[in-house]
Write a structure and sequence with these properties.
It is a single chain. This protein is mainly alpha-helical and about 650 residues long. It is built from 27 helices and four strands. Helix 2 runs antiparallel to helix 11, helix 6 packs parallel to helix 8 and helix 12 runs antiparallel to helix 13.
Length: about 650
Amino acid sequence: MTTQQTQRRLIIVLGMHRSGTSAIARGLAALGADLGSNLLPPVAENNERGFWEDREVVALSDAVLDRLGLAWDSTAPIDRARLAGPEFGDLRLRALDLVRSRLDTWPVFAIKDPRLSRLLPFWSGALERLDARVDFVLCLRNPISTAQSLQRRDGFAAIKSHLLWLQHTAGMVLDTSNPGTGAAHAAARRAVVSFERLLAEPLAELQRLARLLELPFDPSSDALRDYLSGFLDRQLEHARYAEADLGLDPALPAAAAELFAALARSASDPGGGLDGGIESLCRRHEDEMGRLGPLLQFATESDRAARRLQAASSQRERELQSTKDLLADRQARVVALSKLLDLLENKLPDGFGRHLAKLGADVVRDGREHVLQGLAEARESLGSALAQGEVRLLTDLDEREQRFILELGNAEARLRLGLEGFGDQGESAARELRERIERLVGRIETGDRSMQQRFDALATEAKGSQQLIQRLLEASRSWERDLAERSREIGKLSQLLLASQSALHAAQRAGEEALRSRDALRAELRVGKRASDAMRQRLDAVQRSLSWRLTAPLRWSAHIAAWLRGGGWRLLRDSREVARSGLFDSDWYRRTYSDVAAVGIPPIQHYLTHGARELRDPGPAFSTRGYLRANPDVAESGMNPLLHYLRHGRSEGRATGAPE
């Protein structure tokens, strides 16, 4: 491998969505890998601390999925041979140019995108042509925790999330087992990292990841301190489930539980390797998914159709509400015109008032009939109007309003002609009539302005009433949903109460049976005690006899021989060696591990026989856990770490593992 190849490195972070890929990618940045400068922004209530995904990489993944006719959450199987084929040659060329440009700027570059867990065959053709080494980080999280996170964010059913977890996890294992044939891929590494272990022991997991990927690790660096104190937080893990909880979820497939358990063992392995059994398990799952391919494809298409229907339904609801608002506005205009007719009939003088009222009544009646007719027609054609859109309905109603205004103008002209004819009865009567007309016109203009103000006020009130009605309807629907939810909860609680009562009755019966068993045992104990007392008396008599005292040296010799055969001499030798080393502090060991005093075993003997296996320290100057982490060969050998240090490690220059 050339010097340039050793300097240029591409690290690809894989894993299921909501599996801690963002936190692990950010950890790689703290270890010296670059994530680029064109990253997706954080999203509130989704990923507040950032996705740490390159925009162009995500856009390229979306383009590949779009050409496949799939989305990121599609459960339909993906044809790997098709992904690696010539159909995606143009997009593969874009991928090669993208990665090369990133490596030209950042020699150690990391890509994180959960979609790559299923699309890696598409990238393999580009990775083979890179003049760089490619390593993979496989992110692991409990599938139940992942499903709960997806349910909160996207409303996914648990079975869908579990299928996606299986497809992403099995895909990233199989597709990284042989990522390419180029020379740069011969040294490719795979590191399995558990999101739960990263949150529990971040410094140790980062040190393990740095060792597996050959990245620099400096616990005192500002980048690492900022990651540990400013970014990483247990609050990132909103759902926490252990491996033992996998059997509690009835929707979790057995293959997912088995695969998670196998990968969890690899995530805790200091060497970080994946055994062949995991890949065999993933192949079995892939074969099973292949047999279920048509069913999964149908589920994907049904999910897509359901989303389209939901979007169309939302659009129809918005159009219906807009139409209701428009009808309410037209009804308000009819009410206003009715009030104007009442004004004309009751407020004008007799004679001329009746004449004017008749003309006005004709105008108002005709206009009201036109408007009411338009409203009736609008109601009858509401279904088709919703389908054709709001614009057509508005146009139709505006045309009817224009005709109404035109008829008002014609009525005004007829009114003026009537007034002129009325003035032929005499000049004096004409002058008086003109004056009365002028006064009446002034009153009409004043009334018109007042009426317009009342119209505006009524329109505002109608709008406010409509909004209030809408809020009441929404509150009613919300109340109905809450009531249905409470009814379901009451049903569940009733079932739980019945089950609890049954369990209580069973517990009572078990308690009664236990009491009877206790009385029987007490009787047996009394019989046994009497037999034991008799045996003790016989034993005391034997021990006081002369023959017992004469054979005592022979019995001690037998005990010593049995102790030597059982390895007691090695324990004595190791105890002396540890005591002389100065690294074992008996008082410190008793204070630190209070349970040792209760056992009644000397501290050194307890450490040699039990404490080292339980990762306890012999004293403040030596760390059992730290020595084993720094020396995997000692962990594999099974030798006591302190004895290894005294006999070999100190002369080889190995550290004690204790913090300085």
